[in-house]
Design goal:
Protein-Tyrosine Phosphatase, Chain A, 21 strands
Length: 454
């Protein structure tokens, strides 16, 4: 199948962050794009405003009369009723990951992988390349704050940058010219069954990099059974590596640091508005990619200074009436720990309250102890109902199950529908909404409550 010759594509699950990037790309290429999603959102409304037809209830009549291809996400269940019409008409269908791999075929590609940080690294790298005049098409798993989109399109680009998702082993369809791996921590155990299997998948992904000397790895990655390639370019803000950051400090709410390459000063006084030492490491990964592509360090420094981040990645929503409010997508214990560390460094001595919506029953069960330890780093934690996404409930696994494991901080359960009202009673200086479900839908309401608090 030549994916670039298609005239009409239908998307099942078009509102997902990865699916929407593909839909926007094909729409920009002149393909007729339409699709279904379960829930309206700011993202689907944006696509509708761009001219993409989307419906929200199962309706087979909405499938175009002439349809070359259906692209679907595994989040759409196999018994979804539109499947019957698709199969009756023998319309070809492929997963999102297959479509992304097809776009990469025939192009030079950069794939950014890792159980944490891949969205920020993808967005930051795309911004650095685009701002430095390097033509690239980029598919990012989040909304880039500068561009208000999750895809950058340049018809003259010979390079494609993609966020390589390990879920469902999707990233194994890619054979990148440059590959980044930021972290390999246990996750998606509902798919892999064990960290061993996850590591083996990452090992296969790294072996698929077309050039082992173009593999860029976080020097802090810890593995149980696989050995990381010696040829790889490494980066770290705290360990020995090819690219390192030193003299890290906060100046006027910005992180400032010097970048060294193989022990020699590479960029002096890099500035970044994104908070957190983890974002310093993310920047090092992006700088390593830019250097591999031959970009001038001065251009990279300027581009980094203008990067404004990704929506829902330690996103500062407002600061009013003595309180600062941040929203973050963190849904893994490691991510939550890193988030809280960043907030503590940015706001030393301040009290922090986190409102956490667990994501998936299996993840809550598998990482309960890790969640308990990371959430205990807060001064106060409010846990709301588990967001099920694609899963059915598991007996005994609920918010109270997780709450019972937390010690060392104030804690309570709050139903989702009561969270906005509760915000007005929060006494802590810093408020975080945390989770990969739909807690972000409450962000505008919470912001309004905080603005009106006295």
């Amino acid at each position: 199948m030549n994916i670039h010759s298609l005239k009409n594509i239908y998307f099942l699950g078009i509102g997902g962050i990865g699916m929407s990037a593909l839909a926007r790309y094909f729409h920009a290429m002149g393909v007729a794009v339409s699709g279904y999603d379960k829930t309206p959102s700011d993202l689907t409304h944006s696509m509708e405003n761009e001219g993409i037809n989307i419906h929200y209830n199962a309706d087979s009549s909405q499938i175009p009369t002439v349809c070359d291809l259906v692209i679907f996400t595994p989040a759409v269940p196999s018994d979804f009723e539109e499947w019957a019409e698709i199969e009756k008409r023998n319309i070809p269908f492929i997963k999102r990951s297959e479509a992304l791999a097809m776009i990469c075929n025939g192009k030079n590609s950069i794939a950014v992988a890792g159980t944490h940080g891949k969205t920020t690294v993808s967005a930051m790298t795309a911004h650095i390349l685009a701002t430095s005049g390097f033509p690239v098409n980029a598919f990012v798993g989040g909304i880039m704050s500068e561009y208000y989109t999750n895809v950058l399109i340049n018809e003259n680009a010979d390079w494609v940058l993609v966020e390589a998702d390990e879920y469902d082993r999707s990233f194994l369809r890619l054979h990148p010219d440059i590959a980044v791996v930021n972290a390999i921590d246990a996750d998606h155990l509902d798919i892999y069954g064990s960290k061993t299997e996850l590591e083996l998948a990452f090992e296969e992904f790294m072996q698929q990099c077309m050039n082992p000397f173009s593999l860029i790895l976080n020097a802090g990655i810890k593995t149980d059974i696989i050995t990381l390639p010696n040829e790889a370019i490494t980066f770290s803000a705290s360990k020995k590596a090819v690219f390192t950051a030193e003299n890290i400090h906060v100046d006027n709410s910005e992180f400032v640091f010097d970048v060294f390459k193989s022990g020699s000063l590479f960029i002096a006084g890099a500035h970044m508005s994104l908070p957190g030492r983890h974002n310093v490491e993310n920047a090092l990964a992006s700088i390593a990619v830019a250097d591999k592509l031959g970009l001038d360090p001065a251009s990279v420094k300027n581009a980094l200074a203008s990067f404004r981040g990704v929506k829902r990645r330690l996103e500062k929503i407002c600061e009013c009436n003595g309180k600062a409010f941040y929203d973050d997508y963190a849904h893994h214990p490691k991510e939550i720990s890193v988030l809280i560390d960043a907030i503590r460094e940015l706001h030393p001595g301040k009290k922090v309250c986190g409102i956490f919506q667990p994501h998936l029953f299996t993840r809550t069960r598998d990482f309960a102890q890790g969640f308990a330890e990371s959430l205990a780093m807060l001064d106060r934690v409010i846990i709301t109902d588990i967001y099920p996404a694609r899963e059915k409930p598991i007996e005994g696994i609920d918010a109270q199950f997780l709450l019972n494991k937390i010690s060392g901080c104030e804690k309570e359960f709050m139903p989702y529908e009561s969270l906005t009202e509760e915000v007005s009673r929060i006494k802590e200086d810093i408020i975080l909404t945390i989770g990969a479900g739909d807690i972000d839908r409450l962000v505008p309401e919470i912001k309004e409550v905080l603005k009106n608090c006295r």
